Every structure is written in C-alpha cells, then in structure tokens.
Amino acid sequence: MDCSHIQFCADKLNLDFVQLQRLLAKTAFWARERNIDELQIAIANSNPVVTVWDKQRLIGFARATSDGIYRAAIWDVVIDPDYQGVGLGRKLVQTVLSHPLVSKVERVYLTTTHQQSFYERIGFERNETTTMVLHNSDSSEDLARRIKEQLPVTIDN
Question: What is the pTM of this model?
Fold first, then answer.
C-alpha cells in the first residue's frame, strides 16, 4: 500500500468527532459505546492528540495525558483495519512519544488487552507491578462515601 499521501496531525482543534466515534466503534471493542460528548471531554483533557488521515478520512488516532516531567499515559491507539500492517500504528505511537509533553517524562504507561507484542517492538516492556485500577463508575457522591469509609478524614462538600 502506498502511504506517501497519509498525513499525521497533532492539531486537536479540527478533529472530526463523528469520524472519531465511527473509527473507535469499528476498531476498538473497548470504545464502541463512547459518545461524542464524552469524546469531546476526553480530547479537551488530552495532550497530545494525534490523528492520521487519508485525504479527508480519519484512519488513525491516539492521545496521551502527561505531567510533562514524571509520568505520561498513552490512550486509545487505533488504526483502521484497512490500513493496518504497513507501519502506520508504529508511526502513530512514535509521533505521540516524540511530543514534548511525552518525550522527556521518566515513564510512559500504556494499557493494552491484546497488542502487547506490537508495543514491545516499539520499546514498551511488560509491567506486572502497575496493576491497580479504580472503577469509578459510581456517582461522585458514592465515591466520596467509599473514600470516607476507608480513610479517617473528613470530606467537606
């Protein structure tokens, strides 16, 4: 496949959220139910956001969050299946990793379910020690109550 016309973009202001929602629904079992309002919030709070385009068609996406010095996390890495296997996923991740907010941090985290070997080829290592997760699907009041029950502190509302 000739990819010379494929464009990578780090400008999240012109992101087409309808295309992003379709791409995630097509390629990511973990993101099929995401709606546009929630995607807009996630994008607003992410930097960098990198998109991959074949002319006007969104074919790839990844985003990161970072404190710029200690920790960063890469999220939602997807390439349209029609474009997989030609190096675009690798270039997408490398583009995120080269961003100034990510390139100098001590550790970059990434969570993946089935693609460990892909990320190992880029330089990521399996990490069995960072396995903690808080499923914050409860309301904020329920979470505050659970925290209050666990900690001997008073939470002011």
Answer: 0.80
- Secondary structure letter of residue 33 according to DSSP: T
How far apart CA 69 and CA 156 sit, in angstroms, is 31
Looking at residue 99, its pLDDT comes to: 95
78-99 residue pLDDT tens = 999 999 999 999 999 999 999 9
Q: Which helix (H) or strand (E) holds 98?
A: helix 88-98
Sole residue written with tokens 């190096």: 87
Number of H helices, E strands in the chain: 6, 5
Kindly provide the residue ranges of all beta strands, DSSP E only, lying in the chain, ordered along the sequence.
Answer: 7-9, 49-54, 57-66, 71-79, 107-110
Rounded to an integer, what distance in angstroms lies between the CA atom of residue 128 and that of residue 147? Answer: 26
